[in-house]
Specification:
Helix 1 packs across helix 2. The protein has a single domain, classed as Translation Initiation Factor IF3 (2-Layer Sandwich), CATH 3.30.110. It is an alpha+beta fold and 120 residues long. It is globular, with a radius of gyration of 13 Å.
């Protein structure tokens, strides 16, 4: 996997959108899930590579997006990641939910996609 498909240290795959969950006590907590933040400018294939890498290493990943464009890129990335992983006999499931986030002191609703490895 090339470096362009790996999330940077801050968790972004492409141009970032800062997401800060609020309040943390009201959302399900997945300690081992890597959080990938997707914008409408994210390349689905790059995000898919990051998802596949995290699933291979950890078994779970979390993708967050705000807005229709970002959510579209995120969903496409999950579908692409699934095809990458199926070539290796790995299957995934995706559980969508809403999450409240604060961006520049404004509360927004984001989509959270919790992805985990499953048996095919």
């Amino acid at each position: 996997m090339s470096n362009s498909n790996k999330p940077s240290q801050d968790g972004f795959v492409s141009p970032p959108v800062e997401l800060t969950a609020r309040p943390p006590s009201t959302r399900p907590h997945h300690d081992n899930a890597e959080v990938l933040k997707v914008s409408n400018r994210s390349r689905p294939s790059a995000v898919a590579g990051a998802i596949a890498g995290v699933i291979r290493e950890v078994g779970t990943a979390e993708v967050q997006s705000i807005g229709a464009g970002a959510t579209n890129q995120a969903i496409k990335a999950v579908a692409i990641a699934r095809s990458y992983l199926q070539e290796e006999g790995i299957d995934i499931v995706c559980v969508p939910s809403f999450i409240d986030v604060a961006i520049e002191n404004e509360e927004r609703t984001a989509i959270r996609l919790f992805i985990q490895r499953t048996t095919p």
